[in-house]
Write a structure and sequence with these properties.
The structure is a homodimer. By secondary structure, chain A is an alpha+beta fold. Chain A has 7 helices and 11 strands. The first copy, chain A, folds into 2 domains: 106 residues, Jelly Rolls (Sandwich); 86 residues, Orthogonal Bundle (Arc Repressor Mutant, subunit A). Chain A binds a DNA duplex through α6.
DNA sequence: GTTCCAGTTTGATTTCGGTCAAGGATCGTA
DNA sequence: TACGATCCTTGACCGAAATCAAACTGGAAC
């Protein structure tokens, strides 16, 4: 992840905060906030590390905290009583997680990789957001984009076959895992490392781990992708993948 | 749909607008706006009727308009090139539709029943919203709730069996089609009329029309529901339905 | 009433993806 | 480098839902 802070600016020492050196400072919802607002927000929040597999928010629990993702990848999931799981969202650096303005969280949030987040007590954040329309606007834009993305994902889930799901997933990953720093778009990645285990890919696509494995093997056998490591993907024939995605 | 306007208030005749008699005035995002804001908003919008089956917004088209639903039910859908369809959302009276702050619409919007909507040019609406934080806040709350609802629907789509999907669907309909006027909650409806054909239920659940039909027939045979008309449902054994929903 | 027709139901058959079971690869740790 | 645990792959088989096909139903128009 490329660092893309604004050019360094001198600030009075007592106003120096973690935000000034935050690597997602210009991409997260706090972008655009200036002193003294950023100082006030910074005072409310604290940084936290979450190791891979560790939960941050529990489904149906009281919504007590919200956060910005600084580093790492987290999954949002819902589960049934008998243990079936569906991944309903994935949060990358600069993404916002948690449920502001609501009593309960509809999904669990669990780190997929070691992650760092910038957490806020939800009621503090709610109050601050209501007093800062620019922040609320950023949050609205982000929420609308996430809603679009979530709806777009319902098509593969409900209507696509296993091969189509896998191809759609790989193309999606190739775009989201492209270097999304501050430089000009570099286009979709040809090589990338999935933040998911096979089981997690299955939970994202509504398949079983065996079916996911078989589809990966098939793509490799057909020369569409190379799989140099358990989680590494190299796209050898993008147009074939696009055809398969339907 | 019960009328639930605020108590009648005298206003100067020249300020009288359609909003003053709007049946969703207190539930849509315009709730809370007072004169002269409501007058300004009203001047930007116009009412439109959409008959059942008629489209209002096309997928991937430029996002030119947004709207409040006044009356009727509309579906939001995405389609593949080969004609498969997935319903990704359903809009009821007082719901907001369209994609503000974005260039293109991610889903088509088509009326399921005859409907009336209050439409705005998107760029007019965007400008007005940015100048009225209270309106943006309402839109944010609504978008967050819709995101929760959409994510919750991914579990049935990806992980549930056909009988579970149908049971989940009927329970959901029973709640959303309950009298949602201004009176105290009356609880889920026991009798209701679906705004969907069998094919549309299939498009919502990621099933085929035949499977939907068979599942309905089974529920009737088992005495869980009665089906007095093509689209009419009476829930005879709610706890059985809840068991089946998983 | 009769006809027409879209929408729905029912039946027969197929197939895709799930389930069950076993074996293999990879990684962290000692 | 050996061990163990976890994750992944592969195979055999099964079953739920899709597909293909045909018959039925209930309004709308005449």
């Amino acid at each position: 992840m490329r660092d893309c802070r604004r050019p360094f600016r001198l600030v009075e020492p007592e106003r120096m905060s973690a935000c000034d050196t935050c690597i997602v400072r210009n991409r997260a919802i706090c972008a655009g906030l200036e002193h003294p607002e950023i100082t006030a927000l910074s005072a409310m929040g604290r940084r936290r590390s979450v190791s891979a597999g560790e939960p941050l928010i529990w489904e149906d629990d009281d919504s007590l905290l919200v956060a910005n993702v600084i580093e790492g990848v987290l999954k949002l999931t819902t589960s049934t009583a008998d243990g079936r799981e569906q991944i309903v969202g994935v949060a990358y650096p600069s993404d916002f997680i948690g449920r502001p303005f609501g009593q309960t969280s509809a999904a669990s949030v669990v780190a997929l990789t070691d992650a760092r987040v910038c957490v806020f007590a939800r009621n503090d954040f709610d109050r601050f957001a209501r007093e800062h329309p620019e922040l609320e606007h950023k949050l609205l834009e982000r929420t609308l984009a996430e809603l679009d993305r979530t709806r777009a994902w319902m098509m593969p889930l409900g209507r696509k076959s296993a091969p189509e799901k896998i191809a759609t997933f790989l193309l999606d990953m190739s775009e989201r895992l492209a270097d999304n720093g501050c430089m000009a778009h570099t286009g979709p990645a040809r090589n990338f490392t999935l933040p998911f285990s096979r089981q997690q890919v299955a939970d994202l696509l509504g398949l079983t781990i065996e079916t996911v494995s078989r589809q990966f093997t098939k793509l490799k056998a057909d020369g569409v992708v190379a799989l140099p490591g358990r989680r590494d993907v190299e796209i050898l024939d993008r147009s074939a993948l696009e055809m398969l995605a339907g």
